[in-house]
Amino acid sequence: MNQQSVTQVQSLTSHFDALLSPTPRGARLARLLAVAWMRDHEVPYGVTEAATHVVAELAANAATHGRVAGRSFRLELLSGGGVLRIEVTDTRAEDLPRVQPTAPDGESGRGLVLVEALSDRWGVEPGPAPRKTVWAELDLPRP
User: Fold this and answer.
1) What is the pTM of this model?
2) How far apart are CA 138 and CA 44, in angstroms?
3) N or C: which end of the chain has fewer CB within 10 A?
4) Helix-helix angle 45-64:24-40, to 10 degrees
């Protein structure tokens, strides 16, 4: 009988990505997939709750404002180095998101305000053309 010694190398970064349709159904699926991935990777509850809202907002924005017929948006989750990073990439680079003042009685326009409040950092990276990536980072508690 052959015996082999196998060495496993632990990855310092966990990664998930998926292409989704730029529709309300695709945005909902992004949120559900993110929750499942975070539970599988034992992301702490408080971070999971905040990250779920961030994913929902960024995916909804990609489906609403970044929508181009026939082109999907990408959700990526990366966990490593004490940070959970959420990235949503769509194909409307000319439409960069920014926090804008909203009317007190307005029914929309608060998504990025929520992203800013719930994440530790967020931003937008243009390119490669015709794409842009909106990202948010949430610090993970130290054990």
Assistant:
1) 0.85
2) 11
3) N
4) 160
